[in-house]
Amino acid sequence: QVQLVESGGGLVQPGGSLRLACAASGRTFSSYDMGWFRQAPGKEREFVAAISWSDIMYYADSVKGRFTISRDNAKNTVYLEMNSLKPEDTAVYYCAACAADRGPFTIATTEDKYDYWGQGTQVTVSS
Fold it and tell me: What is the pLDDT confidence band of residue 28, given thresholds at 50, 70 and 90?
């Protein structure tokens, strides 16, 4: 029902920056919690960042202070600004949407709470 398309991935040197975008279909984007997850080779998929429909933001400890999540409801798009990138940030990054009716003081931060997923975009941090 909901389609998500990520863009903005690529190759960047350590210390560099990338801005990922995720465009969503549908007319109820503003009611979704939106999240970013990533999966490195040989590793399980992990939570990166999320922004709720009420604009609560939450980050994994590994990216706090370096990554910023934001949303533009008029464009049905969520962004992930990644700064001070490290080689360990190398992964496929996935956008996800939670369509559940969540309270204004909560935010979805685990995979099981997300209903729709994008195909992913590769981020490689290497010199």
Answer: confident
